[in-house]
Amino acid sequence: IWYLSLSSSFYSSKAFSFHHNEPRQQQQLVSSLFKQKSSLTSLSLSPRKEWNTFLTSEKQNLVQPNSLKIKSIKMDVFEEGNIIDEETSKSTSDWFGKSEPVKAKRWLPINDCNSVLEVIKLHRGERHGMSPTELSFCWNRVTKLIVLDKRERHYFTIKHNQDHLQSMLEDTTKAMRKFGPANVAATCHKLAKLVKICKLPINSSVWDAVELEIIKQSSFLSPMEISSTVWALATAKRYTPCVWIRMEELASQSVHHFNPQGIANTVWAYAEVGHKSPELFNAFADEACNQLHH
To answer: What is the pLDDT of residues 67-111, one digit of tens each?
Structure first.
């Protein structure tokens, strides 16, 4: 409690300084800092005892008495992104020592691409440093452009043009094990859309990698992600019994959290692949009736 309260107080002060030849000022400062926190108001120590207690508890964070400057206290006391202004940063550097600034992740301008070929070019230029999340964003952007633009849709129905996407498919297969559950579900959904709209030929190795990660990370899928995943697999004509059985178990446990669209997609998907699941269908039927009446 002392550590956090004192650290926050120091950060909020821009012009405070200690002088080792002014013990009265030191006593007054520590006393005022202690009184700022309600959890410390019950202390009945004198300023001198408070100062000694402070030195004892924080001796590892203080340099020798001849300078009485606070060493570099960890900067992670504050939330990431809560960056202080440059003036405050300079004034507090004397207290906390030099600290490396927090470097924000440099996100690639994927959503700024106005054509699928621009996304492909961006991927080719950044593929070695592209994160799994960015790769998933690439598929999202490609699908969105093809859905919204008839010219893009027509261009990528041609087999020769579809070959431009093969490098992205290869990298997706290799990086799939690093995808989180949300990215796995999203990528699976976008690939299925491309299969439906453009008849994009996707190698079975890509779907095998997707299905493997679906099983491994299935416990972390939300109801919406479950419904979109089974819809995507059914649309792509993928039927691996163990995947559908696992999705059935998860859906049965969270039936009440499915919205109408999720119920419709899931029921359609199971009917499309011919996977019999009477218990799941009955549960969804009851939930659909409840939602209709409410």
So the answer is: 443 333 333 333 333 333 333 334 334 433 444 444 445 677 888
Beta bridge partners of 70: 62
Nearest Cα to 53, choosing from 34, 38, 67?
34
Q: How far is the C-alpha of 192 from the C-alpha of 197, rounded, in Å?
A: 9
184: tokens are: 């796995």
Q: Kindly tell me the sign of the dihedral angle through the C-alpha atoms of 8, 14, 19, 23.
A: negative
Look at 293 and 51; give whichever has higher pLDDT.
Answer: 293
In degrees, to the nearest 5, what angle opens at C-alpha 91 toward C-alphas 87 and 92?
A: 115
What value does the mean pLDDT of the chain take? Answer: 75
Mean pLDDT in residue range 47-76:
47
Phi-psi region of 19 (alpha: psi -120 to 50; beta: other; left: phi over 0): beta
Give the relative orientation of helices 47-57 and 2-12 as an angle to the nearest 10 degrees: 100
Per-residue CA distances from 152 to 115, 163, 198 (Å): 7, 14, 10
Please report the DSSP string for 74-126 in residue order: -GGGSPTT-PPPHHHHHHHHHHH---PPPPPP----GGG--SHHHHHHHHHHH
